[in-house]
Amino acid sequence: MNMRAPVSDLPLKLEDAGTVAGGVTILDGITLTIDAGPPTVVIGPNGSGKTTLLRVAMGLIPLTSGRVTWGGRETATSARLAIMAQRPVMLRRSAVANVRYALAAAGVPHAQQHRRADELLALVGLQSIAERPARRLSGGEQQRIALARALARDPAVLFLDEPAASLDPYATKAIEDIVRAASARGVKVVMATHDLGQAKRLGGDIVLLHRGRLVENGPAADFFTKPRTEEARKFIAGELLV
Question: What is the pLDDT along the chain (242 residues), one digit of tens a residue?
Fold first, then answer.
């Protein structure tokens, strides 16, 4: 598969980005640069703005203030952006048909869809259950099908919102292995998670949000060993941020 992030679309920059909904500030003056490389992992308490940050970066939620740029432009040069929601919905068809549907939606020629679907199912380790109804699969298997559908777009940047939430350790490891495989193929992964262990295992750099503000951002090794802010120290220690 041809999965690589075009240099021209990165870095992704949020400049003083703010979002207000119903009079409530969801994101408050976020300035952040996301560049090519290992996954960027967004962490923070519930309600900190993680999902909104991903959706703003993807262009799904308009900004109230500030701007988002891709390689210095107001829009990405390619349409190869993909996002996987926390609770993706499976279509009423087989696992492989879900993936073929995503390939068709991405404009992949019909003659290539069967081969590409097989490749994607192999990447997520589900070739053996390709013909089973997607809605009868386990939660972990459905998440892997959702990842295959997202990767059907051959994304330059893949946004993942809590991709392993509520999954058992085996299913979580399967998801993390897929994230590593996609990253190794040049896909820039930007992932929100509440799981600090997962952030340590996958993160090349860490973004900590609290109350819609960017509290701390830096390489994962530095974040977990030498946090610069009191909020980061508390969050790493498992204390509540209020």
Answer: 455 544 467 899 999 999 999 999 999 999 999 999 999 999 999 999 999 999 999 889 999 999 999 888 887 766 688 999 888 999 999 999 999 999 999 999 999 999 999 999 999 999 999 999 999 999 999 999 999 999 999 999 999 999 998 899 999 999 999 999 999 999 999 999 989 999 999 999 999 999 999 999 999 999 999 999 999 999 999 998 87
Q: Which amino acid is at 14?
A: L
Q: How large is the angle between the packed helices 110-123 and 139-151, nearest 10 degrees?
A: 130
Number of domains composing the chain: 1
**Structural domain includes residue 28:** yes
Determine, yes or no, domain membership for 241: no
Cα 78 to its chain centre, rounded Å, is 17
